[in-house]
Amino acid sequence: MDNKTPLIALMGNPNSGKTAIFNLLTGMNQKVSNYPGITVEQRRGNAQLTDTCAVQIMDMPGTYSLTPESLDEKIVAQQTLKWLNGIDRPAAIISVVDAGNLSRNLYLTSQVMELGIPVIIALNMMDRVKNKNQNIDSKELQKILGVHAVVPMSAREKWGINELQSELLNVITKANIEVSTHIQMEIPKEIEKIISPISEFLYDKNNHDNYITNVQALRIITRKSALELYSECENLTGAEIKSLTLLRDNVAHEIDVLGLNHRILEATLRFEMLDNALKDHTLINQSEIKNQSRSERVDKILTHKWVGPLIFITLLYGIFQSIFTWATIPMQYIDSAVGYLGNYCVQLFLPGILRDLLVEGIISGVGAILIFLPQILILMFFMTILEDTGYMARVAFMMDKLMNKIGLHGKSVLPLMSGYACAIPGIMATRTIDSWKERLITIIVLPLISCSARLPVYTLMIGAFIPNKPILGFLNLQGLTMVLMYFLGTVTAMVIAAIISRFIEGKGKSSFVMEMPPYRMPLAVSLFRQVYTRGKLFVINAGKIIMAISIVLWFLASFPKPESDEVTFSIQNSYAGKIGHAIEPVIAPLGFDWKIGVGLITSFAAREVMVSTLATLYNVEDEGDGFVGITEALKNEVNPLTGLPQYTPLVALSIMVFYVYAAQCMATFAIVKNETNSWKWPLIMIVYMTGLAYIGSLLVYQGGQMLGFT
Amino acid sequence: MSIKQLHHLLPGESAKIISFHTDLTLQSRLVEMGILPGVEIRLMKKGPFKGPIEIKVRGYEVALRYKDAMQINVS
After folding, report:
1. Taking Cα atoms as reference points, which of B11, B1, B71 lies closest to residue A303?
2. What is the rounded CA–CA span in Å between residue A10 and residue A684?
3. Residue A49 pLDDT more than 50?
4. Mean pLDDT over all residues of chain A?
């Protein structure tokens, strides 16, 4: 990246629409949602302002203040301390402000304005203000605050972005912009005197002006975490930290003796400043609390004591049932297309190794996975709707009490539900949980939630072995089995959470403070874009990992070829066969044969590889020239010893239970290692999940046989 | 007006925050969201089984735990 490209920082409260603005400016496609705190990482992207002028935009995690509390807030606080000391200073800051929620949003803006960097306020969500027949005098607001500009806009309706760009251009092309804020906190003389020991300490260190030094001192007094962060960023020596801590504790005590509260001192002074500055401006002040919003009326039903949870459960059930039923027809189309392609290649090419590799290895392996694309798209579609409407925040509200009982947090619900799509974004999303203990427990149990990679395995087993029978008139045995698998994983996650929460030491008490975003109609464009992104990822994955594994596996399953032509080739003697047979004794008690064993090994790359592994193995084994469909192959497999079918509904159930629990996706554990900063937790997870999988399958298979099932 | 705790308010009732005695981290979090002494709030809803309490403050909506609401004095 060109070092001369000016850097622009994008800051704002959670759920103020920073990421939507980031996407508009950069043309990028980051996930946007209606759930506070969904941006947990810093992201950078280039924005072209004119043909010749580009800037780099940095999207920062949402935060309410520059005092660090949760992990993502710490990232922001750290960054701004650096800027204050002149390191990596951006050329300008876009402070994104939710226009429907001015006074709270301006709190952060006023802190940001003290960094001495030109601030442009992006007054976002003006569409909602206008819909309420209100307006905000942006010129007046700009004058009151003394920011560089206030740009009314709506990232959702995509207007105002040009004005924002031209203001940006304005800032970066002008040399020596004078930054002058019109508002400053009035720090009473009495307090200024009390905090002076800290101010003097800070002044000796950094040489900032009087006001900034006082603000820094106030912030260090409010919280221990602010002091820790300051010491870290300034590389204080042990002795310095000790003396600063001592100063801080004394000053905090003196403030409390005055009858004030040192923890809320900065906030009190700052809100006093803001409230005073805005109070005479009817076109700006909008702190009303009397009116019932539309969201509030909707919530009377959706979060009703009894009706609310019932609606939630019904929604979940409906989603998983529809994954199974709606996807059937497109899946059949893809299935026959893959079969057609396979058979077409058989006819097109001459017999030989290359044809075998193409048909038995690549087409069968990759095709077996592509079939599940419709299901994954449907799942993503519903998950996105739940999040974008603002419903997930309500679910967090409803579930907090229950989650708390089992050592989790209301905010654990969204990460856990993301886990139905994929554990990795779910684990990332746990960063919104403030308490470390609850966050850790959420991470530990999250991979038990059945992700979309398990879906192909469940679907294959259910489709082949569970009869398609109606139950109670409106349910269906296949759909019900599917829901049961999801239920099993979810319930186990809850039980494990309840157990381990007794053993993990927690630092600090947990609390739940969560903004309830207004309900919004999801935008079709953004909805389909997210579904598309996920679908693309799945297909690319199939194209890369699964194709590679399919090719390797095909070689392992096809070689070594017998030395003399008289002996017919048997897959049992191939490398894959030998590997599978080697682990067979371990997995035989679960009802698994060597082919499943090979699938278990390849599943370490990704769970869905199981399906393509079986597809490749069966196609290699098949002596005919045609292309073998995997469902039929599974049904027809015969146990060489007994002559009975190798796979029965009981074996299928045992395999599914194994997949509900098993620790198979390496990428997940790499992320856990990253997020917890040690190998300890991923290792614990691998051990407990593998144990659960083995015992679970053992119970199903052996117990089922004892009860006389097959 | 008499002083009572936030969780004693009935749905729809408004009050002014007087002080709070919640745990320290939570206090800092609340004040940064503009929920501090002197501010008017309205109780919107109480969750089931002493579940979270939803209030409206400064024109937006926010949920708190019941046990934390017990530590907030209003009048």
Report:
1. B11
2. 38
3. yes
4. 85
Determine whether the interchain pair A509/B25 forms a contact, defined as Cβ–Cβ distance below 8 Å.
yes
Q: Pick from B9, B18, B28 the residue to mutate for testing the A interface (most A CBs within 10 Å).
A: B28
Query: Of the candidates A256, A278, A300, which is a domain's last residue?
Result: A278
Q: Which residue has the higher pLDDT, A615 or A506?
A: A615
Which residue in the block uniquely carries the two structure tokens 């300890």?
A680
pLDDT score recorded for residue A568:
62
Alpha-carbon gap: B9 to the closest alpha carbon of chain A (Å): 15
Instruction: Compute how many other C-beta atoms are within 10 angstroms of the C-beta atom of residue A637.
Output: 16
Which residues from chain A sit within 8 angstroms of residue B62, using beta carbons?
513-516
Based on the fold, state whether residues A22 and A150 are members of the same structural domain: yes
Question: What's the rounded Cα separation, in Å, for the pair A275 and A86?
Answer: 31
Question: Is the pLDDT assigned to residue A625 strictly greater than 90?
Answer: no
- Do strands A149-152 and A119-124 pair parallel, antiparallel, or not at all (unpaired)? parallel
Interface contact B51, partner A, CB < 8 A = yes
Average pLDDT over residues A262-283: 87
Q: Residues in chain B, how many?
A: 75
b/e burial code for range A408-431 (CB count within 10 A of at least 16 → b) = bbbbbbbbbbbbbbbbbbbbbbbb
The ipTM assigned to this model is 0.94
Is the residue at A94 inside a domain?
A: yes
Can you tell me the distance from the alpha carbon of A429 to that of A380, in angstroms, rounded to the nearest whole number? 16
Which residue in B6, B25, B43, B74 has the most chain A C-beta atoms within 10 A of its own C-beta, making it the best mutation to test that interface? B25
Q: Do B34 and A261 lie within an 8 Å CB cutoff? A: no
What top-level class would CATH report for the domain B4-74? mainly beta
Query: Residues A236, A159: one domain?
Result: no
> What range defines the domain where residue A145 resides?
7-173
Measure in Å the smallest separation between the Cα of B66 and chain A Cα atoms: 9
Q: How far apart are CA A309 and CA A299, in angstroms?
A: 12
